[in-house]
């Protein structure tokens, strides 16, 4: 499964399978044989799979919008990253041997200067950063950008 895609004019998607989440009372809740209906990115139902036909009729959805997960697949809520520096994507994991100020001088400041000066470079970096973040499971992110309004708008347009 490469990704969930909504179809049709209403952007409907129905996912059937196992869903895993946590609550205040339980660290892990496993709900097997469930169906979740989404319309335009919003959950409109979450019920046992034996109610599927009734739900499809009730919400005027088509079975062509149904994605059935394999036995070894499950859906979890997206992760939340409350502190991500998008300009640092290109040198992630480098310079771990340096103290903060030399690291900023060697990697961060030169990269931010390039991002601020070159819109094509900024778009390329930010597209890759956001794509990787999503592939890693984070669906809500507080991105930090540069002081350039133009480069920052490029990031917000991509998001």
Secondary structure topology:
Layout: E1 12-21, E2 29-39, E3 42-48, H1 52-58, E4 66-68, E5 74-75, E6 79-85, H2 100-117, H3 119-135, E7 138-144, H4 149-158
Parallel strand pairs: 1-4, 1-5, 6-7
Antiparallel strand pairs: 1-2, 2-3
Question: Can you walk me through this structure?
Answer:
Keywords: Hydrolase, Metal-binding, Zinc. It holds the Pfam family Amidohydro_1. This protein has 159 residues and is of the alpha/beta class. It has 2 domains: 12-75, Urease, subunit C, domain 1, CATH 2.30.40.10; 79-158, no CATH class. The protein is 33% helix and 30% strand.
Looking at this protein, list some descriptive labels.
about 160 residues; alpha/beta; 5-stranded mixed β-sheet; 4 helices; 7 strands
The average pLDDT is 93
Oligomer: single chain
The total beta strand count reads: 7
The residue ranges in which pLDDT falls below 50 over 5 or more consecutive positions are none
Largest sheet: 5 strands, mixed
Question: What is the CA-atom radius of gyration, in angstroms?
Answer: 21 Å
Order of helices and strands: EEEHEEEHHEH
**Derived structural class:** alpha/beta
Instruction: Tell me what portion of residues adopts beta-strand conformation.
Output: 25-35%
Proportion of residues in helical segments: 25-40%
How far apart are the termini? 23 Å
Overall shape: elongated
Number of domains: 2
Q: Count the DSSP helices.
A: 4
């Amino acid at each position: 499964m490469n990704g969930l895609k909504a179809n049709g004019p209403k952007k409907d998607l129905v996912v059937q399978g196992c869903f895993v989440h946590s609550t205040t009372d339980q660290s892990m809740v496993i709900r097997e044989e469930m169906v979740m209906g989404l319309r335009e990115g919003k959950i409109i139902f979450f019920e046992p799979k034996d109610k599927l036909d009734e739900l499809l009729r009730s919400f005027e959805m088509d079975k062509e919008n149904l994605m059935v997960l394999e036995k070894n697949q499950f859906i979890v809520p997206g992760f939340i990253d409350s502190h991500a520096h998008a300009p640092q994507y290109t040198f992630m994991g480098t310079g771990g041997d340096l103290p903060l100020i030399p690291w900023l001088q060697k990697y961060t400041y030169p990269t931010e200067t390039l991002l601020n000066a070159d819109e094509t470079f900024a778009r390329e970096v930010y597209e890759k950063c956001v794509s990787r973040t999503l592939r890693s499971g984070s669906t809500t992110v507080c991105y930090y950008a540069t002081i350039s309004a133009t480069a920052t708008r490029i990031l917000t347009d991509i998001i």
